[in-house]
Amino acid sequence: MMVVKKTVGSRIFNLFNTLFMLFMIVICVVPILHVFWASISDPALVQKSSGIILYPLGKVSTGAYKIILNYKGIWTGYKNTLFYVVAQCLITGVLTVVAGYIMSRKRFRYRNVIMAFMAFTMLFNGGMIPTFMVVRSLKMLDTYWALLIPGAMSVFNVIIMRTAIQGIPDSLEESARMDGAGEFTVMFKIILPLCKATFAVIILFTAVGKWNAWFDALLYLPQDKSKYPLQMYMREILVTASTDMMNNAGDLIESAQLYKTLVKYGSIVVSTVPILCIYPFVQKYFVTGVMIGSVKG
Amino acid sequence: MKEKKEKKQKVIGYIEHGGIKALPHNLALDFKRNKVIYFLCIPIIVWYIIFHYVPMAGIVMAFEKFKPALGIFRSKWIGFGNFVEFFKGPYFLRLLRNTAALGILDIIFGFPAPIIFALLLNEVKNIKFKKVTQTISYMPYFISMVVVAGIIIDFTKSGGVISNIVATLRGTTPENLLGNVNYFRPIFILSGIWQGVGYGSIIYIAALSSVDQELYEAAVMDGANRWKQTIHITIPSILPTIIMLLIMRMGSILAVASDKVLLLYSPGIYEKADVISTYVYRIGLEQANYGLASAVGLFNSIVGTVFLLTTNAISKKLTETSLF
User: Fold this and answer.
1) What are the structural domains of chain A?
2) Could you tell me which CATH number the domain at B81-142+192-319 has?
3) By C-alpha distance, which of A118, A84, A121 is closest to A98?
4) Could B146 and A276 be called an inter-chain contact, meaning their C-beta atoms sit closer than 8 Å?
């Protein structure tokens, strides 16, 4: 921070700066608050309202949530997304640790060749259509694998992992080897525990990415809705305005159609609350993660 | 006698500087020493080949009148036919213009925003207030693009919060902003800033915190005020970070966040909203014209790579900082 003399000018600046920061806080928080309060407000009043909703309007209603929780799609989406997140973290985690470990072993003479082989894919890739054709010809369309395998490894993460592992002294592996440890033992019992922080960051970023993912599902699940992740259902509710959910709502509550907008808000709440809850606890890992990424190995 | 001795001499270690001739020997030795590593490499290499290098080969589709029934090897070769069709087609200029416009707007507005935010945050004296602001500002980054699009769509519909504000400011009646072709770019860029400014500032804040305090103290003794300190100390200190991130941004200039466009656009606003990637998606996956889509996609990739390498080279010449 700069060293400043307390002048009138600097006081004015501080005032404006503080106001600006408050503005930033408001801007980031208000849209979410609006969505939340509106979702439990009286639907007729929400329809008429033209401003930002900062408290529930009229009588608190739970109709929107009744409709949402009764919609099979939300549950399917949640189940699938939880599966994708866990599975992807496992697959990507293992592959990244293995790749990072391999690339860090100095006794592996040709590791730089493999590294270059991987790094080239960062510069240039086949594109959306050729990759799609490959997945299709492997008969992976409309399978769970299509959302787990094509995106399994990122060279960037491998480089980060490698850098972290390179920080571990070779003597540790040597003494483990002398005690008869094999490669896997060294990898998972010795090296991995020592770079837990880096590994945690990679897993965290992978998990959040997977939670929010939808485009890969759009491409690779052309027919099978039962495998849709949560965000694909969200897309149907919020963007393409599908009527699946509302069609059955009429049996649940009177004048269900009134709740159309509230249901949109409610589903945003339902799909984003997990992230927002976990966020305060893990946000420092993300900050660390950005730093790690910025230090070129 | 000497020959016998030389024949019996076995090489124990690697042969350095042996060239290609030494490769089999070195490879065999390396394999013996690192068996497990070599076996582990196999799935990794296979994965890269299947999902990265084979699609590269699929670029061949760009030069064919590709028909899925005939496959890559039997579809008709038409050379640059697809490219010509694209360049001469009615959409080329529009797509190029829209993609470039969004990319350039992003660099002009989206890129500096986190830097400015970081500089201002740096000036906040109350540490708790600073931390709270920071933490809250990163939050929008973790909301999914679909939900952000949903919020945008709702706030900009006729009668939506933002539509009403805009209507009041302009003295017009509230309308569906996303249906009006002229509002697309501001909505796209501003919402991008909203989502990214906090998270993007993390790296600059870290760079700022590593600036040597003594520099500031010396400057104050020379009579520099806050503004002068910013220009002469703060900004030059984070310049390498700025440039590196700028190069990376330029490289992906054409890879405009097409998933966001896909969520927000509609045929009515294709005129300013349709970008190269969304066109590729429509032509390829909706119309199944794989040849044309591959050609356009290839064009996109090549221009992106050229941009990246050019920006990198320019930066090397001007500032000595570069990505490679």
Assistant:
1) 8-61 (no CATH), 72-297 (1.10.3720.10)
2) 1.10.3720.10
3) A118
4) no
